[in-house]
Amino acid sequence: MLPRRSFIKKTAALCTGAAFLSRLGAAETRGNFVSQRPPANQRRFTSPAVEAKILEVKKALKDPEIAWLFENCFPNTLDSTVTTGERAGKPDTYVITGDIDAMWLRDSAAQVWPYLPLMKQDPALEKMIQGVINRQAYCVLIDPYANAFYRDEKKLSPHRKDDTVMKPGVHERKWEVDSLCYVIRLAHGYWKAGGDPACFDAEWLAAMKLIVQTFKEQQRKTSQGPYRFRRNTKYAGDTAAGDGYGNPIKPNGLICSVFRPSDDGTKYLFLIPSNFFAVQSLRELAELVNAFYQDPAFAKECTALADEVQQALKAHAAVQQKTFGEILAYEVDGLGNAELIDDSNVPSLLSLPYLNDLDPADQALYQNTRKFLLSTENYYYRQGTAAEGISGPHAGRDRIWPMSIIMRAMTSNDDAEIAQSIQFLKTTHAGTGFMHEAFHKDDPTNFSRRWFAWANTLFGEFILKVLAEKPHLLT
């Protein structure tokens, strides 16, 4: 996924060239655009509001292939990844990422995010999203350092031999700041969209307090904290350096993230996009606490921590680059070292305006950083015969992520740039009708992850945004 998950599984799932095309249905290769959704009686969850939106959008789109992609991608999370039920008398929703039967906090929040504007038209959809919020709070209370969980709280992970504190019900225990940020983002977005506040109960508040405690522990002001992680693996990105704590840092108020949103290990622990996300999330959490709980001290604690991290970003996030001047680093360590790249997963430097309310000074710095990110001086910016975009170490330098193409367009106001992004997405799905994790810059049929629900739903969110803001590009 974003997450690396299993390198072996991912590699085995790669489809390339003629061997892949020969397995495509005849209707797909002829361009008849036959729906790739599961039959109606096999879909995990059906929302009348989502179905109505699909029909509305298909009628508006002039390009039948983009309409077909939207029809396949936008409902993919609901069609194929959602399991609803109850736990302790409350709605409970388990959301897998796609081809792995586990619920990532990050992915599950992002997968249902585009449905928030539709939930007031569909009580069952609202209840389903409330169930995700409930389930995420429950998962955080199991282990705030884990990134992925099972529906069965007694299930043991194939990663249970990792050198860390693995609990039943935990699929993987990679500490990533953004995982907990996404939990807050979904809850705040749900509230702002008018969702039933029943999910904001004592259990949810306890989970939020544990999140703030975890962020503070990972500032590592007086110790390395309680988290360490090592895995017996040949892939260096799947384990942590420094006896499981990560490479050395000098504490400065930023929050350490031992792993990136890709589930690959960080080189330097202060992951800048995730710290920006934490500032945003902590401010949103303070809003929620003030709205639903009589706990001004906790709301103040959230705001104070947000202020501290924001000041640390101002002091330590920017560096001088030889061509572009002052830009944001991807990672720093407080000791003078910085990683000047971007990764495709969200949060990334490219995605900052998508996730964050940037102040004017940060906006200016972001625009300068963006020029670097979309240049060949960013090691992971790739230009090929099929497309151009940002790749990353997770899937390989020459594999461009559709998510990076989508984020480039969603953070742009330039018609030509957005139109080019739409064209890239249209011509690199390899006839499948879905987005993938990554594809080779010169051969879109050489891709990883045929079933990656977050990328699919994000594509749907992107098309809706363009229709709302720049309809002339699609209609």
Mean pLDDT: 93
- Number of alpha- plus pi-helical segments: 17
Beta strand count:
15
Estimated structural class: mainly alpha
Would you write up a description of this structure?
The chain has 475 residues and is mainly alpha-helical. The chain has 17 helices and 15 strands. The chain has helices spanning 7-12, 17-21, 26-29, 48-60, 64-73, 76-80, 105-112, 123-142, 177-192, 202-217, 272-292, 296-316, 352-355, 360-373, 402-410, 415-427, 453-469; strands at residues 82-87, 90-95, 103-104, 148-149, 170-172, 270-271, 318-321, 325-328, 331-332, 338-339, 381-383, 388-390, 399-400, 438-440, 443-448. It has a 3-stranded antiparallel beta sheet with strand order 3-4-5. Strands 6-9-10 form a 3-stranded antiparallel beta sheet. A hairpin with a 4-residue loop joins strand 11 and strand 12. Helix 7 packs parallel to helix 17 (453-469) and helix 15 packs antiparallel against helix 16. The protein is globular.
Q: What's the SSE blueprint?
A:
Elements (H helix, E strand, L loop, with lengths): L6 H6 L4 H5 L4 H4 L18 H13 L3 H10 L2 H5 L1 E6 L2 E6 L7 E2 H8 L10 H20 L5 E2 L20 E3 L4 H16 L9 H16 L52 E2 H21 L3 H21 L1 E4 L3 E4 L2 E2 L5 E2 L12 H4 L4 H14 L7 E3 L4 E3 L8 E2 L1 H9 L4 H13 L10 E3 L2 E6 L4 H17 L6
Antiparallel strand pairs: 1-2, 3-4, 4-5, 6-9, 7-8, 9-10, 11-12, 13-14, 14-15
Notable traits:
43% helix, three-stranded antiparallel sheet, disordered N terminus, 15 strands, 475 residues, mainly alpha
